[in-house]
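Quick entry between incubations.
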Amino acid sequence: MHISEGVLSGPVLVTGAALTAAGCGIGLRKLDYDKVPQVAILTSAFFVASLIHIPLGPSSAHLVLNGLMGLLLGWPVFPAILVALFLQALLFQFGGITSLGVNTFNMAFPAIICFYLFSYVVKGENNLISMAAAFACGFSGILLGSLMVAISLAFTGDPFLGVAKVVVAAHLPVMIIEGLVTLFAAGFLKKLKPELLEVVHAKR
Amino acid sequence: MPKGSPTGKDRLSTRTWPCLIFLILVIVVPTSYALAHRVVLFAYTEGNVVFTESYFSDGKRCRDSRIEVFDRFGNKLLEGKTDNKGQFSFKPPKRTDLKIILTASMGHKDEYIIPAGELRGKAEAKSPASESPKAAKKVFQAEKGSPARQLTSREVEQIRMVVEEALDEKLKPVMRLLSKPQTEGISFVQVMGGIGFIFGIMGIILYFRSRRGR
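Done. Structure below.
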């Protein structure tokens, strides 16, 4: 999921950085400051999740947890992922500093989409539907993220369909596992701390 | 509700504990595979052939990935694909600094630079016969006092080749070892450090927040 330094062309990098900056702006405006510790915990989870490799499938893929983060954070997912990716680039040499913008957007934007698509349903009364939505949330977080990676690479010249197939195939096991992780996490929180599922965007 | 208490909160916890345990298992068990997510390219020379090995740094080999070789000025010399073991070897067409670039799937990329000095063999054999063999010849003469015969520069060159071949052979295991995936790339300290940074940032935000609220 992390695109390395020097792979993407300049315009793609700049566009990604601009979109991430915009996302972070919205995220920080909408951040409810009482939720800062929760954001920090999920940022740490994201930071560590990339170290957990799924030894299945044709390539090397790891957990991302962007679906879960979107579900629990809403818009502040942008600054959260930016910080985590920055530290990963710094400490682990994942991705790169110049591709930070693109990588952040590739993972945070699907998280926002997941938030708007599934947050309401996950909070719903019907347990079965709610759990199915949680699974779909984790699953599509990775699916959309893979497609975002394919799109970024396509703008740099690789054929979209070819790359998309490779990336999606590589992340198929991750999608399923993240679906399960999100399902269990959401189920767990719904029973014990349902208020965590209530994303309150600060009005400012 | 005193009567319903076993079915109330207790039942909740009996249902949530398995979930929690599962979550912990999911997160903890695969950490034995917890390794860097990037590609690494390693290259070394043996004789006049350059060998490259590429792998994701969890140890998985990069199969069928593109390798491009450039000279010092950025001109592409050749390109090829890695085999099933992530290996690719080539004979450099000319003696120059080689910049080898690996492009694996999904935007992973790494490069390795081999300075011209590491290359030798045929490409080199013509040019440098001027300096070092002469010096070597003098040493031979000095040691033998009055030599029965002098080593020709050709012979010295041959000895040098033989020695280098033998050295290559001896150094092979070392090279292999070096080219093995560096699985200790990420340490526990780095992970904890990163988490520390995140909570530090949280602390800073909350600190300024609390001061503003006062």
